[in-house]
Amino acid sequence: xxxxxxxxxxxxxxxxxxxxxxxxxxxxxxxxxxxxxxxxxxxxxxxxxxxxxxxxxxxxxxxxxxxxxxxxxxxxxxxxxxxxxxxxxxxxxxxxxxxxxxxxxxxxxxxxxxxxxxxxxxxxxxxxxxxxxxxxxxxxxxxxxxxxxxxxxxxxxxxxxxxxxxxxxxxxxx
Length: 174
Ligand code: S3P
What we know:
Number of strands: 5
Order of helices and strands: EHEHHEHEHHEH
Distance between the termini: 14 Å
Strand order of the largest sheet: 2-3-1-4-5
Structural class: alpha/beta
Radius of gyration: 15 Å
Bound molecules: shikimate-3-phosphate
Oligomer: single chain
Largest sheet: 5 strands, parallel
């Protein structure tokens, strides 16, 4: 059992900011699958999408997920679409603690706009990003439900969510 903590959920759910805080508290390594892809391929995500397309990005993402999940003592923030892929789902759900961070579409948009994150998310580029988020979230909900550990982040700061995660993780690790 690799026993990593994997955070899944839509963009803007807080996976990276919460993940960083939790990793620090545990003394574990923090890994962001998007940043791994960016580091390995030397370009921002939107450039990879633009130049090579989503299918190629998903291949890169799958390679990263398989490699990273083979390690131990890590908090892994998974790109929002990664868990939709069956192979990723199998790798992630095999011997790791998997928590889904959830938020409503309006909250997601608000958080992404606050750090100009919409333009960095090629799949959300749309004249009506709220509608796009709502549709994509509904399509993915069944995949985000792959874990029984669901955390509602509405109205909570990353630090508050991190506390919830740490408390539950402690229980689950017993
Ligand atoms: C994606 C989410 C992004 C990134 C890419 C695709 C998605 O990650 O992997 O833009 O399919 O929802 P975040 O969840 O970190 O934004």
